[in-house]
Amino acid sequence: MIAKRLRAGTERLLDPLGRHWRGVSEETLRLEPTPLGSQPSEYVRAAWEGRGHGRIRQVSVQAAHNGESLFFRLTWRDDTRNERIADTDQFPDACAVLFPLKGEAVLTSMGDPRQPVNAWYWRADWERPANVTATGLGTTVRHLDGSLRAGAHHDGSGWAVVIARPFAAAGAGELTADLSPGEAVMVGFAVWEGSAQERAGLKAVTLEWQPLSIEA
Ligand code: HEM
Fold first, then answer.
1. What is the domain count for the chain?
2. Parallel, antiparallel, or unpaired for β 130-134 and 210-214?
3. pTM for this prediction
């Protein structure tokens, strides 16, 4: 996957329907349900046995940058728009992009103490995405540091979501991935189907890292 360099302002690229995205190639990736046996909670393992999670089986991804920020545009089919939580059994649609924070982090465990991971986590009920770090299953920490931005649109049959972060974000390399034009990094993607009550470890993911080169 290539993050194409575009001449466009950040506000424009945050618009998932913006015309600049038409010139950016798209890659469709297969998503798999997270293995139920890896869920750290015994309750979740028992309650979700045979129920089925990871309902969204593919996501199309585009990547671009404008020298200042890196953008991902994710689109997936989902005809139920879940963006409000009015009760405890309701969950929002969501998606996230995952990066290793150091070295060769393990995607299937969301990292480990020596090789943590960083996720940019968009949720349909949030104003801004959260910056998440993890050092293994069940260890996620949300940092509401304000560097992440998003734009989202649901057209009745699916979502188009843009998630972005400035290259020069505070805490890069420690709390958020170290990124710059001309570099190659690994990325992973996850999608949660709110209408199926997916949340936290219950989601669909790319089980392998995808290489991304950021154009110079
Ligand atoms: C590209 C792949 C992945 C991405 C982008 C991703 C992203 C995330 C994010 C953003 C959260 C935080 C949710 C929150 O703050 O409420 C989370 C939580 C969690 N994820 Fe992942 N994840 C991925 C792969 C996996 C895999 C393969 C598993 C295996 C079971 C997993 C298990 C979990 C669990 C158990 C939680 C809850 C953790 C906690 O409560 O601290 N994740 N994930």
1. 1
2. unpaired
3. 0.97
